[in-house]
Every structure is written in structure tokens, then in C-alpha cells.
Amino acid sequence: MKNAKKLVYVGIAMALVILTAGCVKESRKGYKEMQFSASCKSCEKLDGFVSPSQINDEIRKMVGKYKGVGEADNVAIQKSRGVVETYLRPDFIDGGDCPEIDSEKWAIDYSYKRKRPALHKGIDIPQPRGTPVRAIANGVVVGKFLNEFNRKGIEIILRHTPEQTGLPFWTYSQYTHLQEMPTLSIGTNVKMGDEIGKTANTGKMGRRVRRDALHFAVLYSKYPEWSNDGVVVTPKDGYFMDPNAFYRLDPPYESLSLAKLLGDQKWVPIPYMNADGILAPSDTKRIWPYVCK
């Protein structure tokens, strides 16, 4: 009996060793890189989906997947792929009264908060807990994550084709700190203005308490391929975009070019939907992620 129990324990230990070896490896720079061999099964029939192995590791670092002493590498890649301050400002069409970005603006240096190299890869829009978050364009759900041990908290990601946004590339809108896991399944088609989640403050914060707000980010790529490895959504050869730039009608969209704009060119007319579902302007394909007055 003792020998049988011993064999069971040995078997369990060996299984754990094999599992760990398959999930974590030590990089040449001395930090752990999580390796996920299983892709998102419910994603596999969606347009553009490819295996995680077909996405370059640089893109995984861009979205901040790798932790530890590799954070400086992540930040360098993020800067090279669009996480640069542009100083764009929203100008809501027809004087719309819309929830606004607070001090947590695009691409600001978060190193003082995190005590390590870090950038803010989106914008924060405070709203009362439970306020519905809206899809900024027609699209499909390609990612949902609990992020239990991550500052992002509960997250949903939509993919938008060029036809759906009027932009010359594929875009991915990310919404985090949500109150609860959205009921929308991966693969669900959503219409612009559909509720996709509710505002809250989920996500690891240490001793501080985050105010209720939406963290809103946009990625883009000239390629339709993307992947979901169960932790992040990664567009092939993807870049981050200042979320304000998503609403521009004309190029440029790339951050370094946007940073060179002068004067009134920094103001971006922002379309939106009001509580009655009326769009401003009526023919827009893109709206602010909250209802406006």
C-alpha cells in the first residue's frame, strides 16, 4: 500500500515537472517567459486567426506579456511600436457632452507608479461603477480575460475590419477594469454602440484603490492575421495607436507623425452616440466608448 501511494506521488510530481517545463522557460536575459502551447479553441474558426506560434515574440512583448527584468525590453518595443505621446486632444462633435479622459492619458510614463519601466498603453475614462461600456465600431469578440493577477482586471477585446471602421487597416479595441466578465462569447458579432461590459475598477492594485474607470486602448495592423493564446490577443506585426487617433478621418495614424502635428491639428473631432441611439454625425462608423449627451 505504501509503495502504491509512493508511485502515485511520484507520478503527480513528474506530471507537474512536465507541465511546468512546457509552460515556463528561462530566457537568455534571466527572466521567465510564459509559453502557452494551447491556443483559443473558440477562436480557431474566426477570420484571420492563426496559431500563437505564428506571432513574433516582439508583439507579445509589445502587449506586455513578459514580466520580470524584461520590462525594459517591453517598454523599448512599445515605444518603437507606437506608445509615444502625441498630445492629441478630443473635440466632441457639435459640442457633445461626453465622458472625458482624466490625468491617465495616452503613453505617459508609469515607471513612478510601478517602480519599474512602464508606459500607459491607453487612456482612462472615469465613470460611475456599472456604467455601460459601448463597442466603438462594428466588430467581433476575439478575447475575454479575467486577468486575476494582472492590473488590467476583467477585459474584452474586439476586432474590426477596414470595412467596419473605414480605416485602412485592421483594428483591435481593448476595454479593461470591467465589473464582471461580459456574457458575450468569443466569436460574437457586435454592432457599434452595443453594450460590451460595465465600468468598474477590477485589476491588481496593491494597497491603492483605483477609481472606477475604463481603460481603453487600440491596436492596429495592415495584416488580417491575429492570435489569442489564452492570455493576450496579438495582431500580426501589430502597433499601438493613440485612441484619439482612431477617430481621425485622414492619415497620419502613426504616433511619431501625429506628434509632429501643430496647433489645431492636435484636436480630433470625436463622433459619438447619445442615449437615444442617435449618432453624431449620422454616417459615422466609429463612436466614443460611452454614451454622450
Overview of this protein structure:
The protein is of the alpha+beta class. It has a single domain (40-280), classed as Distorted Sandwich (Glucose Permease (Domain IIA)). It contains 6 helices and 17 strands. The protein has helices spanning 2-23, 57-62, 71-80, 111-114, 162-165, 255-259; strands at residues 24-26, 32-34, 89-92, 123-126, 132-134, 139-145, 154-160, 170-178, 189-190, 195-198, 213-221, 226-228, 233-235, 239-241, 267-270, 272-273, 279-280. Strands 4, 6, 7, 8, 9, 11 and 14 form a 7-stranded antiparallel β-sheet that branches. β12 and β13 (233-235) form a beta hairpin. The longest helix has 22 residues, at 2-23. Mean pLDDT is 86; it is low at 1-37.
In short:
The chain is α+β, with helices and mostly antiparallel strands. The protein has helices spanning 2-23, 57-62, 71-80, 111-114, 162-165, 255-259; strands at 24-26, 32-34, 89-92, 123-126, 132-134, 139-145, 154-160, 170-178, 189-190, 195-198, 213-221, 226-228, 233-235, 239-241, 267-270, 272-273, 279-280.
Structural class: alpha+beta
Describe the largest sheet: 7 strands, antiparallel
CATH architecture: Distorted Sandwich
Q: Give the amount of beta strand, in percent.
A: 15-25%
Q: CATH top level?
A: Mainly Beta
Q: Which range best describes the helical content: under 10%, 10-25%, 25-40%, 40-55%, 55-70% or over 70%?
A: 10-25%
Number of helical segments with 4 or more residues: 6
What is the succession of H and E elements? HEEHHEHEEEEHEEEEEEEHEEE
Q: How many domains in all? A: 1
Task: Tell me the Rg in angstroms.
Answer: 20 Å
Total strand segments:
17
